Amino acid sequence: NLAGDSIPRPKWRKVAYGGMQIGYDDNYTDESFLEEMVMNANVVRRDLLKVMKDSVSISQYLCIVALVVLVWVHTLESSLDENSLLLLDLSLLASGFLILLLTEEKMLSLSLLLRYLLNISFFTTGLYILAPIYQTLTRSISSDSIWAVTVSLLLLHLFLHDYSGSTIRAPGALQTPNLTSCISVNASIVASVFVASRLPSRLHVFAVMLFSLQVFLFAPLVTYCIKKFNFGLHLLFSFGLMGLTLYSIYALHRLFFLVFLLLVLLVNVVCPYWLIRMQEYKFEINGPWDEAKLCFDITD
């Protein structure tokens, strides 16, 4: 017995699927087990100023949607006629093409520009033909239900919108938009149809639908190209858009102005500050007990 007790135990080895080792419990670990422990290895350290700059894209798109709603309100109140709306549509289309030509070298091709113009002509023609259908689409539904669904769709659009890019992809960007971006765009289009169905004339419906589709489909592409071309120009454009939106809302209603101002401050100042402060409470432990991770990408 004494001879048996003096036999040294085999050295403990750190194995994942080797079964129980003789002389050791199943949950045994020696002092070398924690040598490979790493604290907060994958925690990203963020800078407050950088986070605030990145959040400008969110407030920028909030201003774009707010301006669309303002145009809807003025059109429904008959303070904006169809001729002014059509002029606004043409101005937005021309300025959008100009920005794309100046910021995207790959779009300087004349053949590509002609193809875009041809597609837009087919698009506007089909939209004009379908305008009477949109005008009578929700005639049997009460206005309260229309406004409630429209607000819900706009909130869904804002919640699912891709603030880092564009659903209509620019040259050099990712070619496949994700599902949430597509749902966001569809929600904005349905909301535009609901608003257009409450307008008095066919030309009103056509002008509002053309304006809404231009903004919801192509404004993210234009702002994406501006941001990729020059970040300083992106900030300048965003702050100018914020000023225009705040002035327009202030002229419409003081309470809405205060709410939107607080929302912009929340997005650009408060939320980035909260994000930086929460970094202090992150506590991540990595070590030899972690599950194995694949080091290659399975695409098939």
Task: Give a structural overview.
The chain is mainly alpha-helical and 300 residues long. It has one domain. It is built from 9 helices and 2 strands, in the order H-E-H-H-H-H-H-H-H-H-E. The chain has helices spanning 2-5, 48-76, 82-103, 110-135, 143-160, 179-196, 202-229, 231-252, 254-278; strands at residues 38-39, 285-286. A two-stranded antiparallel ribbon has the order 1-2. Helix 2 (48-76) crosses helix 8, helix 2 (48-76) packs antiparallel against helix 9 and helix 4 (110-135) runs antiparallel to helix 7. The longest helix is centred in the first third of the chain and has 29 residues, at 48-76. It is elongated. The model is unreliable at 170-174 (pLDDT under 50). InterPro entries: Plno_GlcNAc_GPI2. Keywords: GPI-anchor biosynthesis, Membrane, Transmembrane, Transmembrane helix. The chain crosses the membrane at residues 55-73, 85-102, 114-134, 146-164, 203-224, 231-250, 256-276. It is found in: Membrane. This is Phosphatidylinositol N-acetylglucosaminyltransferase subunit C.
